[in-house]
Amino acid sequence: MTGADGxxxxxGMGDDGIAQAAPVWAVFGDLMAGLLGAFxxxxxxVLVVQMDLVANLQAEVGKRQAEEQRxxxxxxxxxxxxxxxxxxxxNGRIGISGNVLFPVNSDQLRPEGQQLLKSLVxxxxxxxxxxxxxxxxxxxxxxxxxxxxxxxFADNLELSAQRALKVTRALIDVGMPSSKVFSAAxxxxxxxxxxxxxxGRALNRRVEMAPVPRSAKP
Length: 218
Known about the structure:
This protein is an alpha+beta fold. It is built from 6 helices and 5 strands; from the N terminus they run ααββααβαβαβ.
């Protein structure tokens, strides 16, 4: 081997070394590009998820603020009958004692009950108008069976239905649009107090009114 050959070999090794190293760097470059692309995709995905979470959170906050404003508006509109104890307000549901509206085992509205319903209509329309909701008027009774000479009603469910219907018609007669109100009957179901005492039964004999979304109407 001559010195020139050795130099050529060294040069060849150098060329081979470069030739062999080039694919390694190319693979490394492709790998890094792939990793960078994956990182970018993950980052974009995380950003999209965070934007969705922020949007959902803002929507929920707006919904809760609207609910709070509606509750405050309803309390303000019902301030007088609430202070007089003629109605109750619980989670947006307006409750009226059955004794205020009707005699026991009767569906004939008392005059003071009619006046109370008339006074509630402006507040109810204000609340319903904000979200285009409907008003569900629900009748409830205690659990004492209808007995004696009262043959007008088959049972408490029928009595509660007639009472809810009478309240609904009374609201319509004093200005509530008929397209915004409907009635429902629950009889002795869903008591709010024990039926073992007269005080508890009096609480269970009631009519409730609550705004509901139109899609929730049975």
